């Protein structure tokens, strides 16, 4: 298997994976969604809430606020040595919020949450939590823990986890009178007319929709869109909780552990 990084930003990574099959790609996609740990607020203690929103609605909003995650210095609640339902500093982070509208209506944002660990904070300071009218207050304590997306979507470290076959496009050697139609109809602007013929401008953006093939009046179509059976492009977009490359690394690590557990169980069955 060969890997090549196409694009990497703070929250997005696109990778070409060659010489593999669809089962492996789907496993990585599902693991990154459901099994990679990240931090999220799990419990909220309301001290004072005179806002228009009920306690449960505010707690729900806080839970869905993505938090930056430190996987190396925190344990999951299941693996922590404390084995306490309230947690400990090794498996729990406390965040507090104390907001009041003194002069008029104001919006309380995620940036007003104060964390005991400056590394575990909301990924954005501009996520609205509640709007307070003059004289209203919101005071609370929130507790964040590690979890996985299979338990609740708030512990899902990615908002996009998808893959597609590596596209293969064959264009005609010469222009015909209708080539412009095929170029214009492409929703991703993959094709262009250059040097007197149809050229591929951005191969990696092709989503194999076949619109250009259907638009060609020639039968068979002069443009052919195919895919390479064992080559894929995987795209991950992080919520900001973890860098996207860390999500992919953790997914491969978890997949390896699952395969090892499966192998051990198989050996036990064979011995019986």
Give a topology summary:
Elements: E1 2-8, E2 12-18, H1 22-34, E3 38-49, H2 55-63, E4 93-100, E5 106-109, E6 114-115, E7 128-132, E8 137-147, E9 158-170, H3 179-185, E10 191-194, E11 197-200, H4 211-215, E12 224-238, H5 244-271
Antiparallel strand pairs: 1-2, 2-12, 3-8, 4-6, 4-8, 5-7, 9-12, 10-11
Q: Count every helix, treating DSSP H or I runs of 4 or more residues as helices.
A: 5
As a percent range, the share of helical residues equals 10-25%
What's the gyration radius in Å?
Answer: 25 Å
Percentage of β-strand residues:
25-35%
In short:
The chain has helices spanning 22-34, 55-63, 179-185, 211-215, 244-271; strands at residues 2-8, 12-18, 38-49, 93-100, 106-109, 114-115, 128-132, 137-147, 158-170, 191-194, 197-200, 224-238.
Structural write-up:
The chain has helices spanning 22-34, 55-63, 179-185, 211-215, 244-271, and strands at residues 2-8, 12-18, 38-49, 93-100, 106-109, 114-115, 128-132, 137-147, 158-170, 191-194, 197-200, 224-238. It has 272 residues and is an alpha+beta fold. A four-stranded antiparallel beta sheet has the order 1-2-12-9. Strand 1 and strand 2 form a beta hairpin. The longest helix has 28 residues, at 244-271.
């Amino acid at each position: 298997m060969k890997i090549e990084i196409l694009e990497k930003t703070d929250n997005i990574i696109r990778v070409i994976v060659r010489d593999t099959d669809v089962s492996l790609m789907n496993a990585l996609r599902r693991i990154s969604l459901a099994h990679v740990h990240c931090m999220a607020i799990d419990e909220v203690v309301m001290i004072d809430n005179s806002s228009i929103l009920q306690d449960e609605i505010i707690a729900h909003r806080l839970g869905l606020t993505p938090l930056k995650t430190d996987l190396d210095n925190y344990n999951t609640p299941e693996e922590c040595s404390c084995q306490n339902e309230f947690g400990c500093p090794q498996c729990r982070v406390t965040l507090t919020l104390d907001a009041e509208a003194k002069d008029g209506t104001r919006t309380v944002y995620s940036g007003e949450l104060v964390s005991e660990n400056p590394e575990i904070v909301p990924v954005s300071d501009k996520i609205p939590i509640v709007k307070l009218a003059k004289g209203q207050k919101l005071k609370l304590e929130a507790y964040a823990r590690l979890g996985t997306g299979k338990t609740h979507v708030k512990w899902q470290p990615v908002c996009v986890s998808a893959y597609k076959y590596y596209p293969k496009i064959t264009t005609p050697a010469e222009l015909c009178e209708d080539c412009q139609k095929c170029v214009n109809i492409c929703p991703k602007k993959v094709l262009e007319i250059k040097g007197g013929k149809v050229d591929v401008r951005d191969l990696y953006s092709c989503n194999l929709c076949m619109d250009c093939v259907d638009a060609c009046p020639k039968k068979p179509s002069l443009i052919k869109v195919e895919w390479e059976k064992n080559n894929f492009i995987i795209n991950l977009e992080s919520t900001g909780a973890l860098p996207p490359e860390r999500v992919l690394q953790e997914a491969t690590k978890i997949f390896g552990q699952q395969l090892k557990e499966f192998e051990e169980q198989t050996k036990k069955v064979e011995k019986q």
